[in-house]
Amino acid sequence: MKIAVIGAGAAGLAALRHCVSGTYGDQVVCYEKTDQIGGTWVYREQTGFDRYGLPIHTSMYKSLRANLPKEVMGYPDFLIPEGPVSYPTRTQILDFLNIYCDHFKLRPYIRLLHHVELVEPVAGNRKWSVKVKDFQNDAVAIESFDAVMVCNGHYFEPMIPNIPGQNIFTGKQIHSHDYRVPDFFNGKKVVVMGAGPSGMDLALEISKNANRVILSHHLTETIDTVFPENVVQKGDVVELTEREVVFADGTKEQVDVVFYCTGYKYSFPFLAESCGVRVDSNMVTHLWKHLVCIENPTLALIGLPFYVCAFSMFDLQVRFVLRHWHGERQFPAQADMLRSEAEEAARRAERGLQKRHFHMMGPEQEHYYSDLANVAGITPLPPVLSKLHNESSMRFLKDLVHFREDRYKIIDDYNFVQLSR
Ligand code: FAD
Hints:
Elements: E1 2-6, H1 10-20, E2 27-31, H2 90-103, E3 110-111, E4 114-122, E5 127-134, E6 139-145, E7 147-150, E8 172-175, E9 189-193, H3 197-206, E10 212-216, E11 231-234, E12 237-240, E13 244-247, E14 252-254, E15 257-260, E16 278-280, E17 283-285, E18 287-288, E19 292-293, E20 299-301, H4 310-325, H5 334-350, H6 365-376, H7 384-398, E21 407-410, E22 416-419
This protein binds flavin-adenine dinucleotide (FAD).
Protein name: Flavin-containing monooxygenase
Pfam family, one: FMO-like
InterPro entries: FAD/NAD-bd_sf (IPR036188), Flavin_mOase (IPR000960), Flavin_mOase-like (IPR020946), FMO-like (IPR050346)
């Protein structure tokens, strides 16, 4: 098969690795719009737009250390090497991705500075036309493929809630996508909106510079972790005035900065409507197993689920897709795939989850991984990954300030130990 891979982040590299591994003898081209591999792990001081007029992709900030131990952050058969700490820095992860890329000799297949502008099914849906802008040669080309793996990430298009008064607020408003270093917050009063991993991490980071940090979230209970004294928790922000934020309980606070840590939108600006993929309230649909486009199954979207062991899941998803594309497993009938998606949506809705939580895994990840492995008949991920992921997420919530001092060691497919700090 001739396969296009869009993006050379951790997902695109996993896709490329299995496409070129020799198992199937596929031809593959990986298009990467920036000048480097590594995706969101590439730190760039610049925010806004790059020299080619494209929005900056990465959301990486300078001080970032992973919020998961390296023991769960490698690929299934290519682990992050042993070291004295479990929680790697962003540079260590980027170095690791470069080592992975070189180890599997992937660079010859990667076309840097190639921006995919349009993907559409052609020839009665039997082929894909991929239109690419080559920034180096300032040229546009259209190539034809049998299949496409979309690996463009989902932490680049900021989600900013609509709040009355946003247009009259005279302070600064910034999204975490554009955050790099804390200096900007020196001596300021800041409301951080959102208590996901970024909101929690960044509230802590800027508390060293800011005068006062208000962590606003809609969790029904106060987050039970020890924050520095200048960090307080409040409910949702419901309105902004010229200088104040108004909270759901009616209280008001004067602030200098509204810092949106409100997450990201799934976005596939290059997929033509005829591809059959839509984003509905941040649920990507219609997909089989969060992965395969039901209307055109030779299109796969790698990496959508979140709160997962990301690199291992990418590897598993790619192997799943290739087994099907190469006929070792058959896709179910379209109606059955649609039913499976609808049933999962209904199960999640029954549990009170909104559409935007459709791809959230967390405690469900083990079930998702084993389902993929069983259905495709491929080597499963060791269950210890999900176990350690869930343990680490719990420690993150309980002890935000110190959890990165924890050290873990995986001892077999099911067990890990926590080493002394
Ligand atoms: P990306 O890394 O975003 O890569 C996508 C690539 O596609 C980019 O290189 C982009 O330039 C390219 N691209 C996009 N559109 C096009 C196009 N049209 N044409 C050509 N190329 C294109 N995960 C963890 O496991 N542990 C962590 O501690 C962790 N911390 C994180 C911290 C932050 C601040 C963020 C934002 C994410 C974090 N993640 C973490 C999640 C992280 O995104 C994943 O681990 C993983 O790196 C995502 O890989 P990806 O390849 O799917 O996407």
